[in-house]
Amino acid sequence: MDFHYTVTTDKSIDEAINSLEQNLKEHKFGILWQLDLPAKLQEKGVEGFTTPYRVLEVCNPFEAARVLSRNELVGYFLPCKITVYESEGKTKIGLPKPTAMISLLDDAELKEIAIDIEKTLLSVIDKSK
User: 97 pLDDT exceeds 70?
Assistant: First the structure.
């Protein structure tokens, strides 16, 4: 099982994020927070990393409540992260697969929920590229 799912797009970072935001809303997910990693590193005095790299924390509150009520350790994996970054002149969109994370808890019911969430997020990423 791959740990991540990543696609390449011809969109700019901002265009990809805007597309993600719209497509996430269709599935009751929202962007809770966005980290501009190079800007944050520079703010902390690190000048060596300037490649555009954004980390989005996304959540469907209903699904979050559902999995947390089953096992509070799921909170270690929440919210879901989607990264949008530049690599070799191309924009990439990716995420760690929810099934890869949840499989660490060895709970079949949580795994089924993670499969559904993963299908949704992969669909959103594919539609956003």
Answer: yes
Q: Are 56 and 20 in contact (CB under 8 A)?
A: yes
Compute the average pLDDT of residues 92-96: 98
Say if residues 20 and 82 touch (Cβ distance below 8 Å).
yes
| Helices marked H in the chain | 13-25, 37-43, 61-70, 98-102, 108-128
Bridge-based pairing state of the strands 30-36 and 80-87? unpaired
Q: Regarding the domain delimited by 4-128, which CATH topology (the fold level of the hierarchy) does it fall under?
A: TATA-Binding Protein (3.30.310)
Q: Locate the domains of the chain by residue range.
A: 4-128
Q: How far apart are CA 52 and CA 9, in angstroms?
A: 14
Res 88: pLDDT = 94
- Between CA 56 and CA 38 the distance in angstroms is 14
SS3 31: strand
